[in-house]
Amino acid sequence: MIHVALEREWEPAMTEQGFWQMAEEAGLCLPIYRGKWVESYLATDGSRLVCHMTAPDMESVRSFLHQTKTRYVAVWCGEPHSLGLDLLPNVLVERSFDKPVTLDSIQAIEDAGAQCLEMRSVTFTSTLFSADKTRMLCLYHAPDAQSVRDAQQEAGMPLDRVWPCQYLCPPEG
């Protein structure tokens, strides 16, 4: 199984209630394509959504998106990396790179700027790093998105967007 990031934008904004309705409808169809919803991150203003799922391959994902007429900004496969902390992420950082990078090179920049994160009570929780090594979604637990933005900029970390999010996962059962 591969890990997939599905990035979406909403105008008008998506509500949490709207999200759960959409998730229920998708949940009826996704298993047909042998996909599984892992987790999602909805911007607190409802303008953006990232869904993390697993699937056998990208063709299954494309078929699912086509069948459900899902509009999206980007869809890509990647590898998740987590520290295994019990902190729920509440800020998402989007990164893109003109040329492929290594996870180690990005981690080295973040490690060098660890004090910037610590001073602002920002804790890294996990990342999804694209297979082509040009895209990365990083999740943090922090007092607010501005704390993450400031720490990232001070540490010299590349970033495209920083936004507060709500962590949503499949109901247990």
Could you characterize the architecture of this molecule?
- The chain has helices spanning 16-29, 58-67, 103-112, 114-119, 145-155; strands spanning 2-9, 36-43, 48-55, 74-82, 91-96, 123-130, 135-141, 161-168.
- It is α+β, with helices and mostly antiparallel strands and 173 residues long.
- The chain contains 5 helices and 8 strands; from the N terminus they run E-H-E-E-H-E-E-H-H-E-E-H-E.
- The longest helix is centred in the N-terminal third of the chain and has 14 residues, at 16-29.
- Strand 6 (123-130) and strand 7 (135-141) form a beta hairpin.
Rounded to the nearest angstrom, the distance between the terminal CA atoms is 22 Å
| Count of individual beta strands | 8
Indicate the structural class. Answer: alpha+beta
State the low-pLDDT regions, or none: none
| Number of separate helices | 5
- Could you tell me the radius of gyration in angstroms? 16 Å
Summarize model confidence as the mean pLDDT: 94
DSSP helix fraction? 25-40%
How are the strands of the biggest sheet laid out side by side? 1-3-2-8-5-7-6-4
Question: Can I get a quick summary?
Answer:
The chain is of the alpha+beta class.
Give the topology.
Layout: E1 2-9, H1 16-29, E2 36-43, E3 48-55, H2 58-67, E4 74-82, E5 91-96, H3 103-112, H4 114-119, E6 123-130, E7 135-141, H5 145-155, E8 161-168
List keywords for this structure.
173 residues; alpha+beta; eight-stranded antiparallel β-barrel; 29% helix
